[in-house]
Amino acid sequence: MVNISIVSGWLPVLMVCVTVAVLLLAFDWRNGGWRRQLRVGVPVAVGVTGVVALVLEAGSLVPSDFPWTAFVWCFLFLLAVCAAVLGWHGSGVGRRSAAAAAVVLTFVVAAGTVNQQSDSYPTLGRLVSLDPENVVETPKLAEIRSQVAATGKLPDQGVVFMATIPPTVSHFATRPAYVYLPPAWFAEVRPVLPTLVLLPGEPGSAADWSGAGDADNTADAFARSHHGVAPIIVMPDPNGLETVDSECVNSRFGNAETYLAVDVPAYARSRLAASTAPGSLAIGGLSAGGTCSVMLALRHPSVYPTFASYSGFASPQYQETSLAVTIDTLFDGSEEQFAAHDPVQILRSGQFDGLAGWFEVGNQDVDPLEATHNLQPEALRAGITTCVLVRPGGHDFDLWSQALEDSFPWLAWRLGLIPEPNHEPATCETP
User: Fold this and answer.
1) What's the CA gap between 18 and 190, in Å, rounded?
2) Which of 93, 109, 125 finishes a domain?
3) Please, which residues have CB within 8 angstroms of residue 262's CB and are 6 or more apart in sequence?
4) How far apart are CA 71 and CA 79, in angstroms?
5) Cis peptide before 203 (omega within 30 of 0)
6) Which residue from 235, 292, 227 is spatially nearest to 264, judged by alpha carbons?
7) How far apart are CA 297 and CA 347, in angstroms?
């Protein structure tokens, strides 16, 4: 049940059908009360929905591809509220129950249409809990190491635990991160392991990659083929407590860029005994996190010489609003600061020999697909080795989990764990 999709398939269709049927039952068809319910409810619902739409549009508070069906269901939700209020007096238990259910169901479906666009909660399990599966408490780490010391046998799979990454330099107020440790991390003689930093999208959470993104299972599969060895994966929260979308830059919302470029690598190396060798850090991300990954690698090439963008956009875009709102909100109105964080402009003005980037996107994902077609040639001209893969799919976790699996051997090679793979599903080019 927890793996049933709530963004596609039979369940959303069933919810819509049930909701429409229950809404119809909320009206007083037998005694003619439905005329008053509609006569009052329709104008109220139209008016309020219209005002909400205008305010959201005027304030650039919704992305350009915000689903119009959300406004339809907003109208139906308000109509259900009016029908319940106007028809409550004198109604029996049956119609009152239907009216109450209609209010709840129309609200749920309205929220579901927004979720279908963002794909923040792809399954029932994801809706119930944001936490990844199989998370262990930190004392368990010492217990596993003791078991390995006693038996001489590595665990069959890695573990994920919740961590607080100290914002020592950035002072960035952020939510907890998640960390994946491969089986080899628990060995008596621990190998020196590199670090892969994975960023979520917006809206999103640090749990996304270990949850719907399936990162720990992908890493476990790799480790099983490499004697328990895989990168340490750090999955931080790039947005913090002040905003849902930092775009990974230092702004009035906090020093997200410094946190990701300084504090996160320092935590991996000091607390997790990760490798400090040059090239031992890579960064990747989905959607807005992909945009962040490219930007952070270009601005901090000595920290992140390898990056992966899965359905990333071309430039920072605050909550998918306009360029003007992005510049005003994140860069205090400075076009120069925006340009300094815009991958397109950075690539056109610099040379980045030694960097390498993986771009993967779905063929139905219009904006990220265009961004990939624009960024990859610019990256190649700027001296960056690039790998590009366009897969069937859209802007969702089906694509992103597969993208991580596709790129994982390449990332492991770039991080120094394995020899260069003989074959990549992507088309890779060297300047």
Assistant:
1) 56
2) 125
3) 169, 170
4) 12
5) yes
6) 235
7) 11
Nearest to 26 by CA among 122, 76, 97: 97
Which residues, 6+ apart, have CB-to-CB distance to 42 below 8 Å? 79
Pull the structure tokens for residue 187.
């060995």
Tokens of 269: 């190396």
- At 343, list the tokens: 């991958």
- Does 1 map to a domain? no
Q: Does one domain contain both 255 and 145?
A: yes
Domain that holds residue 312: 130-429
Residue 1: partners with Cβ closer than 8 Å, 6 or more residues away: 124, 125
The pair of structure tokens assigned to 147 is: 């078991």
Q: What integer pLDDT is reported at residue 322 of this predicted model?
A: 84
Phi, psi of 163 (to 5 degrees): -135, 150
What's the chain's average pLDDT? Answer: 91
pLDDT digits (tens, 9 = 90+) for 112-121: 888 777 666 6
Contact 124, 4 (CB under 8 A): yes
Domain count, the chain: 2
What does the alpha-carbon distance between residue 57 and residue 72 come to, in Å, rounded to a whole number? 16
Which helix (H) or strand (E) covers residue 177, if one does? Answer: strand 177-181
Q: What is the mean pLDDT of residues 226-255?
A: 94
Asked if residue 307 lies in contact with residue 358, where contact means CB atoms within 8 angstroms, the answer is yes
Please compute the mean of the pLDDT values over residues 40-61 and round it to a whole number: 87
Residue at 4 is within a domain? no
DSSP 281-296: EEEEEETHHHHHHHHH
